[in-house]
Design brief:
Strand content: over 45%
Radius of gyration: 13 Å
Structural class: mainly beta
Oligomer: single chain
Largest sheet: 7 strands, mixed
Low-confidence stretches: none
């Protein structure tokens, strides 16, 4: 089992930055892909970014490319999502997830956190 706990969300103004963290525990994550997803009210969950744990390959949704950066810290067993130039449309509940495949398909991820709310005001 893998337990994931997100933190770092909040209410910010458009154009500013936030860094989300996802602390993982329960087992080694060396073979896992770590992903960030988000879900806004009334909308479906969407892929944001993913990073392979072993070799740092990354993927991003087109809507966040150039603004968001996913990274991970082996020693702290933590994954980060640095979000810059935030826009009101980035407002959502952000989830961390762990899976076996580097894919934007949420159904392929096995473990999920409870989410952290990000609200961007205009």
């Amino acid at each position: 089992q893998v337990q994931l706990v997100e933190s770092g969300g909040g209410l910010v103004q458009a154009g500013t930055s936030l860094r989300l963290s996802c602390a993982a525990s329960g087992r080694t994550l060396n073979s896992y892909v770590m992903g960030w997803f988000r879900q806004a009210p009334g909308k479906e969950r969407e892929f944001v970014a993913a990073v392979t744990w072993r070799d740092k390959m990354t993927q991003y949704a087109d809507s966040v490319k150039g603004r968001f950066t996913i990274s991970r810290d082996y020693a702290k067993n933590t994954v980060y999502l640095q979000m810059n130039s935030l826009k009101p449309e980035d407002t959502a509940l952000y989830y961390c997830a762990a899976g076996r495949l580097p894919t934007p398909e949420g159904e392929e991820y096995d473990y999920w956190g409870q989410g952290t709310q990000v609200t961007v005001s205009s």
